[in-house]
Write a sequence for this structure.
């Protein structure tokens, strides 16, 4: 399997009581899969507030994703687990639901610069549990769950690993990891998750974009990807400027509030969903809401007749 192009990591709409809004979720998925340039969808990732979801909710989310997408693009399911038992359970559920690939997030137990061998064993365990392609999720150094060069090289030797979701947030580390992907013994594609620096990462040679911000701006991300691929630097800069207007607001500190901000912008763009996020995440303030609307207006994304 080759994963490339724009692959949004979907948000998960919720009712005001925090339960999953299945109707709004299916509509969100349909809107994304119908966006020109979208080549896959990721469910149960950070943007879906996966750490707050029960096993049953995760299974339901991937069930809905697979049913809605109906084979039009690959469905990638995030595996966020505390240990091998949970990882095996979530991976088995994803396979049973019909997911096409798994996005393997580092377990929290690998924080604080844990033994690299433990991270490798985690990938080996997931690969031995289900025969699905795997995407390695590379974290930034500040999380303490980053993968060093030697560890990532070993992870990429696993036949099941077909892509890297690169979220190092360091262009030098990104370039190093791109070299690791390119020198793997089999095809490993590079999917940029460096949402605040997409143009540089694409120019270096990313094969696609896998980002939660794609839930809101998949169309713009697809335009950027296509213009870089066509060698249209001026056009890419124009699209990138519009994206940067949005990322400056969505990815400001505190970073975990990005999910609430994305839901707010989706509502501003006409999506029929609530902006509910699960506690301890908090809703946006009125001042933030004004900034989010202003950014959409400046990026030219607000529907006609909607005032900023």
């Amino acid at each position: 399997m080759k994963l490339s192009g724009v692959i949004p990591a979907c948000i998960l709409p919720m009712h005001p009581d925090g339960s999953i809004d299945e109707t709004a979720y299916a509509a969100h998925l349909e809107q994304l899969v119908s966006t020109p340039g979208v080549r896959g969808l990721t469910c149960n990732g950070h943007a879906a507030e996966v750490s707050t979801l029960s096993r049953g909710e995760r299974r339901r989310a991937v069930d809905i994703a697979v049913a809605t997408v109906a084979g039009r693009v690959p469905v990638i399911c995030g595996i966020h687990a505390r240990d091998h038992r949970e990882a095996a359970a979530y991976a088995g559920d994803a396979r049973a639901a019909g997911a096409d690939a798994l996005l393997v997030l580092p377990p929290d137990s690998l924080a604080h610069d844990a033994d690299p061998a433990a991270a490798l064993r985690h990938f080996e365990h997931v690969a031995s549990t289900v025969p699905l392609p795997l995407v390695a999720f590379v974290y930034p150094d500040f999380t303490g769950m980053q993968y060093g060069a030697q560890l990532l090289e070993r992870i990429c030797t696993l036949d099941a690993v077909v892509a890297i979701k690169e979220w190092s947030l360091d262009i030098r580390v990104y370039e190093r990891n791109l070299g690791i992907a390119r020198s793997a013994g089999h095809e490993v594609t590079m999917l940029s998750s460096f949402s605040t620096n997409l143009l540089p990462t694409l120019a270096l040679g990313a094969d696609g974009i896998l980002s939660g911000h794609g839930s809101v701006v998949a169309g713009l991300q697809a335009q950027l990807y296509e213009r870089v691929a066509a060698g249209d630097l001026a056009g890419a800069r124009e699209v990138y400027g519009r994206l940067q207007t949005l990322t400056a607001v969505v990815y400001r500190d505190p970073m975990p509030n990005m999910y609430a901000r994305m839901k707010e912008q989706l509502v501003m763009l006409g999506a029929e969903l609530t902006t509910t996020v699960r506690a301890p995440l908090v809703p946006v303030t009125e001042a933030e809401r004004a900034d989010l609307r202003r950014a959409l207006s400046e990026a030219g994304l607000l529907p006609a007749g909607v005032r900023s």
